[in-house]
Amino acid sequence: MDRYYTPLKAITVFTLGLLFAGGLGWLLGYPQEFLLLYLAVLVVWNGYYLLKLSHWFWNSKSTSLPQASGIWSDIYDGLYRTQKRHYTRRKKLAALLQRFRQAAESLPDAGLVIDGEGQLIWSNKLAQQYLGLKWPMDKGVKITHLIRSPSFIKYFQQQNFDEAITLYSPTGDKREIELRIMPYVDTQYLILARDVTHIRKLERMRKEFVANVSHELKTPLTVMQGYLELLEEPEGLAPQQQTQALSEVTRQTQRMQAMVEQLLMLSRIESKHQDVPQEPVVLGSTIHNLLSELALVIESEQVHVSAHIDETLTVLGSPERLHAVVHNLLTNAIKYSGEGARIYIEWQAQEGQAHFRIQDTGPGIAPEHLARLTERFYRVAADRNSRSGGTGLGLAIVKHALEAHHSQLHIDSTEGEGSCFSFSLPKINSDCHKSDIQAT
Known about the structure:
There is one protein chain. This protein is of the alpha+beta class. About 50% of the residues lie in helices and about 20% in strands. The protein contains 14 helices and 13 strands. A six-stranded mixed beta sheet has the order 11-12-10-9-7-13. A five-stranded antiparallel beta sheet has the order 2-1-5-4-3, with helices on both faces. Helix 9 crosses helix 11. The longest helix has about 35 residues, at about 70-105.
């Protein structure tokens, strides 16, 4: 809408009114009084609309301006237009801020903004989760009072933010957080915090894996080297000693070969890009075959094995991987139960599932070891695997093979009483032909 009262028109109207009042007063003989009256009317008229505007500003809840006439109509209209533009800009700004908040909350990292003094200005929800912040109660609090790690305080005070810093979460949940500080706007700084617990764990596992493989290969190689050096001068050895040396070299070679084969199998099982074959597997037959294959080992270890097997119980999965699961669980029980121990194997249908259980009366395992039994190369005792010829990979293979079949290994053990390893798989048949086996 165009302005009705231009400055020139307003001056013209005022001047004409002044001339009219003066002329009328001159005709009636009271020019000064009429001029004063005209000015008084102008003051009252302007004061009325000014008070009306003031009342609207401070008391009225209406967004529409009151009615006015004359130049005040233009003033009211100008205020209304200004208010409308301000309201539109405020809505746009609010929408922009809302989108910013949504984007900030969607970040995979925790985000904080601090001022030049280190006082907290803003944080997203992940920052509150990772760093234990309480928003908005912590607004204005110095970041060094919120993150009290000595290494972070030193890092922040040095003001050298070229490299990130990693520290444990102040929440005490053992989460490792990587913090990176960068300039934001003016004298403000943006802090991004990322949960690197899994990455750090993988790095430690990689280093431990390399160290363990190096150790496992170095030990048999050292033994083989010693015997081969003796065999370089066979005349100094009795025939029985030569035979013993060759047997030990062969045994160590077989041990290394077994470890390499298990490492390759573990690598295949852990590969997320490899689909698990869905073939019918009669695991009862696998158990029978393994017991036959291990008969001499069972006899030499002097353990007593009994089994209760549903021979027709069938599951879907990988024959190779399920064979590896049962083989490793069975050989572990035979090797580590001890002389005279009893081993009980069960493969039965329970509550719509195919349930496998192997229980022994061996020495058992201390509680502090149970959570780590399925780690690669983990040993309950330092010389346990070396005495038994194990590679320390068996239970890791079992764990990952079962996970590939959407199952889980359950371990129960009591020191001095024995151990029980079990898992369940979906069965695909309901026929039942059971057999009982006794092996001594």
